[in-house]
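Hi,

Apologies if this is the wrong queue. I'm a grad student, and the batch job for Battenin from Cynoglossus semilaevis produced an output file that my downstream script rejects. I'm not sure whether the problem is my script or the file. Here is the sequence I used:
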Amino acid sequence: MEQTGSVNADPAQLPVGRYTRWRNWSAFWILGLCNNFSYVVMLSAAHDILKKQESQQNATQTSSAEVSVGWNSSNSSRYDCNPISTAAVLVADILPTLVLKIFAPFFIHKMPYGFRVLFCVVMGMMSFLLVSFSTAVWFSIIGVISASISSGLGELSFLSLTVFFSRDMVGGWSSGTGGAGVAGSFLYSGLTQVGLSPRVTLLIMLVVPVAMLVSYFFLLAAPPSLPQWRSREREYTAVTSEERQGLMDQSEQEEWDKAHPGSEVISSGPLTFSEKLVVIRGLLKFTIPLSLVYFAEYFINQGLMELLYFPNFFLSHSEQYRWYQTLYQVGVLLSRSSLCCVKIRKLWVLSGLQLVNAILLLFAVRFLFLPSAWLVFAIVLYEGLLGGAAYVNAFYFISKESEDRHREFAMAAASVADSLGIAVAALASFPAHRYFCSL
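Support response: The file is valid. Your script probably expects a header line. Output copied below for reference.
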């Protein structure tokens, strides 16, 4: 691996080092995009197909299948409520990911990275195929669960993978995941808008898992230390100061040397269960504010956003909701790509601002004091900026401040924070939806 951060590096080799670094950054960007793409697309795609299947059944089943696709305006509520909150779909989507992220960090090191990526690719392809060819509701649900497993395993694996590369790869990964929301929603909507059926659209999107495969095995320049096809029973191998220079740039190396004077070789050995618990306890200063950010964020998105309806606006209810979601995704993309420009260590500030957003919109739904959807557009864009910034900065500082032998486990364990916040928000959205729609 090129020692791009070494002071004594041969100048002739620096262009090669920069090329490799940009190549790896691009690979992580594509991996982030592909990992979250199926999860984003599967929400809309599964609902479209469920709607078609359920149209042949009773009205109750039909309304359940149409969550987040159409809007039921035949009710007497002033909010033009859906019969079921959109949080119902979110619960089904997030639970497999949450369970996986809670338990996988304790044993996933036994599965080599190459096999993990192959499994994610297979599950991603299965999700598209199962939903596109489903003939029953349960078949589509299995497809959505497959997408959730692929996304959850991919996130904790690729975040752990960044420890084998320079720290700015966290920014590449985060930017790619932000791009998935925008690309997924626009591509699916665009292809169906021009007349393609949901089934054909999903089959076209089989190219996305293939792109993940190509990006990981052919674009990414993996270092020799990466356990590609061997079990990682030892979660940390000894790293000399010379080898560490290949993972850090000059400023990062100087910071390490100041914090660890005289440390030529870091002791090696697998982490014990008690050590892992100590690491998790140390992560709470990052994971708690990140969970709070995502709780507030998804309480807005799934509990309140569908109720922020302006009847006299030039967009219909479904169009307003769609633009809320799109602007939110744009905000996420911008802030997850901001690591090269700004770094925010105080995550509690971001969580506090996001909670203020949630409280503001909660009162806005209750008392209807916002004058126009334009103001909501600005708020949800700002909401996305806060959420994306919290995500990328949390994992950047976890990577930066964790000890060498703890870093891989810490990155995987911390990935549960956003899913936990999302799951709690989904559960909290049910009584909120029920209360407002009963008014």
